Amino acid sequence: MIVNVKESSLVQPAEETPNVGLWNANVDLVVPRFHTPSVYFYRPTGAADFFDPAVMKKGLAKALVPFYPMAGRLRRDEDGRIEINCNAEGVLFVVADTTSVIDDFGDFAPTLELRQLIPAVDYSGGLSTYPLLVLQVTYFKCGGVSLGVGMQHHAADGFSGLHFVNTWSDMSRGLDITLPPFIDRTLLRARDPPRPAFEHIEYLPPPAMKTLSTAAAAVTGDAASKPTAEPAPAAVSIFKLTRDQLNALKAKAKEAGNTISYSTYEMLAGHVWRSACRARGLADDQDTKLYIATDGRSRLRPPLPAGYFGNVIFTTTPIASAGDLGNKPTWFAAGRIHDALGRMDDEYLRSALDYLEVQPDLTALVRGAHTFKCPNLGITSWARLPIHDADFGWGRPIFMGPGGIPFEGLSFILPSPTGDGSMSVAISLQEEHMKLFNSLIYEI
């Protein structure tokens, strides 16, 4: 696919906005340090002004007034802590076209091809040089359009990012803002003095890969082989599970006399974790850690104000042996997830903020390739997020999902764009492991 950039401009707020430094909470600072990529696809409507850049930019400028931090830049305060400099420099808006058609993307797996639909960000000039938000409208030969979004993670998590995009789409249709953003991150400041009360294994290093199982090493007398210098090539795929398949998976919670009820999400996440362990061929004694992105908005007491703008993502991390996950019923994995999520209450989350406060270097805790790679796994669920609500005046998207998965072992759970009760799992695994995962994910 060849993408031709036609126009590139900075869009600034339509009115004067506060010129202030926005303090970042600890949970704003331990997120991956890049622009989170997502892509929307829209079918043509026949409208003469279909995705007119002027309409898009006018709505964007209006939305940047209440969401003014999005138009800013990062900088370090006098203590060296990263904050958002709300200087209204603007967001990047790119207009492009291609001779490809939307159907060329098939099931919209977040491959490198998809990444071309989002502006690339040049990080080489330092953290104050690039926009926090980069946008690209790409016109396809079939008449359809994609909207590529790259959002710097310090600025917003998925919930806040969608709050912005959906407000932008509303304002492009001439509507007023329905829920103003709440812009004050000191609500997530650590207690003084900090009082961490838990171990917080979510921030401790994940289990390392055992190159040989203990039993095999005992039999052969071999020591662990040296790790290979080159990481194995990764593949990205997306798998749709129908409502019937999800119901069958949920019914497996009753196997072997289990009486505890698990949610569809817990059973699906457990199934993905279990299937990944089996596809990777992990030894029975290999520990594996699951990283579950967990929204703290409704778990904190009192709950954060509606419209809180920032990152409120904590991490739930059940750990189990691959043998237990593979040999026990699927509900065993779901049970580990259920129990771990149950611990994520206000007391635990406040303790996590305090734990981060006393760490000498938060950069050491930033998630990256080392976090999710084999034998571990990350799951981010967008199933309850309003990812299909961005109607700019020409209808809802036929698909919205990640515009790339940067790390092997990271996965996303996506809701159906048609409301048919299905869910899709987008995942990155080593190529050899993906071949097995292709079939294991459907062994329900």
UniProtKB/TrEMBL annotation:
InterPro entries found in the cross-reference section: CAT-like_dom_sf, Plant_Fungal_Acyltransferase
Coiled-coil portions: none
Keyword Transferase: yes
Keyword S-adenosyl-L-methionine appears in the UniProt entry: no
GO molecular function, one term: acyltransferase activity, transferring groups other than amino-acyl groups
Keywords, comma-separated and alphabetical: Acyltransferase, Transferase
One Pfam family linked to the record: Transferase
Entry superkingdom: Eukaryota
UniProt record similarity statement: Belongs to the plant acyltransferase family.
PANTHER family to which the protein is assigned, alphabetical: SHIKIMATE O-HYDROXYCINNAMOYLTRANSFERASE, TRICHOTHECENE 3-O-ACETYLTRANSFERASE
Official protein name in the record: Shikimate O-hydroxycinnamoyltransferase
Biological source species: Linum trigynum
